[in-house]
Design goal:
single chain, mainly alpha
């Protein structure tokens, strides 16, 4: 595993989660709370949501991106309302990667 100092550098964190979203697990708390880093991670691996900071596990866009990539990642969301959110519900029912958030 790389040095903890390397894993807290933004550019290294971005590369790590683009290679494998689950690498979010090995990043420091600051990177796990960075919305852009977490979005890249869950777009690559929906289940990386489980390693995100709690506030991002409540973020509707982050949850939608995770569920769009892997519908089973909804279990890592911290808010029950996500189950009722139409975009999240559509992402669960649609083939992975085919749902975009409404503008």
């Amino acid at each position: 595993m790389p040095s903890p100092h390397v894993l807290n550098e933004r550019s290294c964190a971005e590369v790590a989660v683009q290679l494998c979203g689950a690498n979010l697990e090995f990043l420091g708390p600051e990177m796990r709370a960075d919305r852009d880093i977490v979005l890249k991670a869950v777009q690559n691996c929906g289940s990386a949501l489980q390693f995100a900071a709690d506030e991002l596990r409540r973020d509707p866009l982050v949850v939608l991106e995770a569920v769009n990539q892997d519908p089973s990642s909804l279990r890592y969301s911290l808010d029950v309302f996500h189950y009722e959110h139409p975009d999240v519900r559509n992402a669960i029912l649609a083939p992975a990667g085919t749902v975009s958030p409404r503008g």
